[in-house]
Amino acid sequence: MESIKQLMNWYASNCDDDWEHTYSIKIQTIDNPGWSFKADIVDTEVEGKITFEESIDDDDDWYSIKSDGKTFKGYGDPKKLGFLLDKFAEFIKS
């Protein structure tokens, strides 16, 4: 639950009557099955922060996370939504 609060606070801190009209955060289901999490980080304090892909791929236990400096993207199996949000919370903290 803490990572959801951090996500909401991060989003609110970037809403300036401009950013939220151009950029977004998306949480969706995917047909693997699993989750997709995408957060635009342009014009935020973490813009430009790049991470190498972190992933595991083991049948029903998989995820992939990466940031290219403009977007943070995470994908994971049906049980990984909380994990993806935790990883984003770590990303915006450091």
From TrEMBL:
<dbReference type="Pfam" id="PF15580">
    <property type="entry name" value="Imm53"/>
</dbReference>
<dbReference type="InterPro" id="IPR028228">
    <property type="entry name" value="Imm53"/>
</dbReference>
<protein>
    <submittedName>
        <fullName>Immunity 53 family protein</fullName>
    </submittedName>
</protein>
